[in-house]
Request: fold
Amino acid sequence: MGSIRTATPTSPVGIAETTPARSATETGAPTRAGIVRALGALGLLGIVTSIFIVSAGASSGPGEYVPARTGGWPSWMAGPLRGLGIGLSNAGFQTLVVVMCVSYLLVLVAASRLPMAALASAIVLANVILLLGPPLISQDVFGYLAFARLGVLHGLDPYTHFAAEAPTDPVYQFIGWPFQNSPYGPLFTLASYAIAPLGLGGGLWAFKALAVLSSVAAVALIARAADRLGRNARWAVAFVGLNPVVLLLAVGGAHNDTLLLATLAAALALTAGAGARGYKPRAAAAALAVGVGVKLTAGLVLPFLVLASPLRRERLRVAVSACVALLAVALVGVLGFGVHALGFLNAIGEQQQLVASHSLPAETARLVGLSGTPVWWRQLYVVGFLAVVAYSLWRTARGADWRVAAAWSTIALLVSTAWLLPWYAIWVLPLTAVSGNRRLCAATLLLCAYAVLFHLSLANPLLNPPSQTVVVDLHSTIPHLRHSLKLTGFEVLHHVKLDLRW
Reply:
């Protein structure tokens, strides 16, 4: 009986001690997860809202964030959001960009706890909003139109002629580079010919739609690649699809870099699976060759893909597939442009003689007290880039992840080039998104942050002030041209002649 009396009261005590502890554990974890999800949802709202206000604000009237406004302010450029009457001041733009960046970081932290449907909806909505707004930050999309119209309407090869040779074309007043040959690959240039008959308004909207479709397709392919590689697909989708550089600069400016984004994503998706059905490096090589037909940059990834397989025979097969695909691209170019099919290489070479004032070589030259950006200083960066590429290829040949190696090489390219434009930062995003490498992710985010700083005046004390504007009077020598050509935001090296001939 004594033992029963002793045991009887101990049972409730045990229950009373264990039940509250278990309840705290069970209720505490969902609370933390709920907070993270709430912050992520707030981040999604912040990105979409800031994109909407920037796009609608830029639509309300001609302002500095739509450079093409210098040619006029037609309704087809302003877009359907113009009637909302939302203004966009310099301070407002900076605040919205900061909100967008902070929101992006919140989404990245919470991405693994957010539904894929919520992430996808935010990405699509942000892209649609940008589609409805005017072309932001850049005039490049009108350059695409000018090259297309040059070939289709004026019978002039854009690889040997430039827009200033057709000064009466309506697109001329909207472009920013009237004396430059096309630096784009033959596939993109020929494809753009189909857009020329649509007129200025139709052509602009076609390029805007192309940028949106390319961006969304790239995100879908990245999600597939990340899932097959065992990475967090939701984080990869958020990392690329909600990145402010992708949205505000690349899609907002209707840049053809989004096509490059899609071809890189396709190559990653084609090499992410296992077995004969999932792992298709030769098809991936063809996708990258198509990317080269848009922009030469895609070719940087090709040798890493070739070296990805540990088997020499497979490497040879991929190399042959890459060469065949590149030859096919070249053949299309020859059929379209004859002996000038590779003329875009000359244009790229000329472009590389310019120095963007916020490129890393220019900024570091200022920091060490150099006058301008000397050629020898730029060459040091080129040597560094080549060293990184050589080491990365060696590592890939010895079994390192080719995606990580290619991503580091792409970052090295962006760091070393003196002609760095902010939307170029998206080139590395697909590779980084599926890499699973934390240091690479951190470096990519820093590069994107730097690209965003280009357009924030609050960063002026940190960054090199733009070069003084050079105004060249052309009216007295070339009739029908605008009174002056303004060259600002970059340097022309001392040994380079500026050719302004008719």
